[in-house]
Amino acid sequence: xxxxxxxxxxxxxxxxxxxxxxxxxxxxxxxxxxxxxxxxxxxxxxxxxxxxxxxxxxxxxxxxxxxxxxxxxxxxxxxxxxxxxxxxxxxxxxxxxxxxxxxxxxxxxxxxxxxxxxxxxxxxxxxxxxxxxxxxxxxxxxxxxxxxxxxxxxxxxxxxxxxxxxxxxxxxxxxxxxxxxxxxxxxxxxxxxxxxxxxxxxxxxxxxxxxxxxxxxxxxxxxxxxxxxxxxxxxxxxxxxxxxxxxxxxxxxxxxxxxxxxxxxxxxxxxxxxxxxxxxxxxxxxxxxxxxxxxxxxxxxxxxx
Length: 305
Known about the structure:
It is a single chain. By secondary structure, the chain is α/β, with parallel strands linked by helices. It has helices spanning 2-24, 42-52, 54-73, 76-94, 112-119, 132-139, 206-217, 221-226, 255-269, and strands at residues 101-105, 145-153, 157-164, 169-173, 176-180, 186-190, 200-202, 227-233, 237-242, 246-249, 276-280, 286-291, 296-300. The protein has a 10-stranded mixed β-sheet with strand order 6-5-4-7-8-9-10-11-12-13. Strands 1-3-2 form a 3-stranded mixed β-sheet. Strand 12 and strand 13 form a beta hairpin. The longest helix has 23 residues, at 2-24.
């Protein structure tokens, strides 16, 4: 009996040790597999690629920019926009909002054809497609137009009112003639003087400086009747060229008073009826007269109270 119990006890200890041994061992998977690497998002991968390849990045960027420039330069984008606008405006044209009448007023020296060409309005086009400010900007590019007003009058009329520049003098440079404004700004070149009795000026700087002397000469009727050209000398003073080949030299300062003196010499003394080629009014005490034969004669000025 003791032997049987001893064997049973040894069997139980052996079984217990076996269970503890198995429990202490780590469990091994039946189908072991390799662990997967963490996945990298596509955007992060592309960013790393571009950063590691700067030349590739630059090349791709230049290709994209070149493609965009090609689209705009080739007119593809503009043409697509125009086609889209035409499609949008078509129903309004059918509803009676097409341009059927364009009225232009105020164009004395601007021809209707040149104004119409600058407006660039297609008859029958949608009135909603008319851009008044853009049309005005094109009109201002015409030589005689100082200002313009463009209005849409629904449903089908566009009215244009032109304000033209005022010619003030004719500027002569050699054989070339240009009409100028009072400010001296050149309006346009001309073949001849179609403006009647506009004064003719010459010399460098003449257009910008001419307004005061032209205004003063308008009051001196005898000089005005004989005036041919007003010439700027050295951008400092004026010479008057009168009919009969007479030149009158005016001083830099006080030329207004000398114009009045010249008017008196013509009217009261009849100096232009004599054989005079040049009258020099630059000296305070004398008139200097040069005859056509070359003789020069100083004449004392009259002292008047």
